[in-house]
Amino acid sequence: MPGRFNGLTDVQWELLEPLLPRSPQKRPKGKPHTPWRKVCNSLFWILTTGSRWCDLPEGSNWGSRSATHRWLGEWQEDGTLDRLLSALKECADIVGMIKWERLAVDGFFFRRKRRW
Predict the structure, then answer these.
(1) CB neighbours of 111 closer than 8 A, spacing ≥ 6?
(2) Domain spans in the chain, listed from the N-terminal domain onward
C-alpha cells in the first residue's frame, strides 16, 4: 500500500544510525540485542500509525514489541528519541515535506483560505 511505512530506507538509516548509542554489551543470559534498525523500524511504525503495540508487524524487518518498548523508554530518558525525531524533522523540512504555513500548534494540518 503506497504511503504506508514499511521500514527505513538505506539513506534514512545512514542519517539516523550515527545518532544511536553503541550497541549494548551482550548480556550473559537471555536473548541477543535486537539490531537498532529493527528497533527504529518498529518504533517509527508505532509512532507513524498510532497503532497498538500488539498490532506491530512481525518479520525480519521488525523488532519485538518488548525490545522496542524497552528502548523507547530508555531513549526518551537519555535524549536519543529527541535527537532521532529532530533529525527526521530537519530532513523532511529540507526536502519540502513539511508545509509550515499549514501547521497549527497541536500538530494539526489545515488549509488556510487565502484572503486577497
Answers:
(1) 102
(2) 10-22+32-102
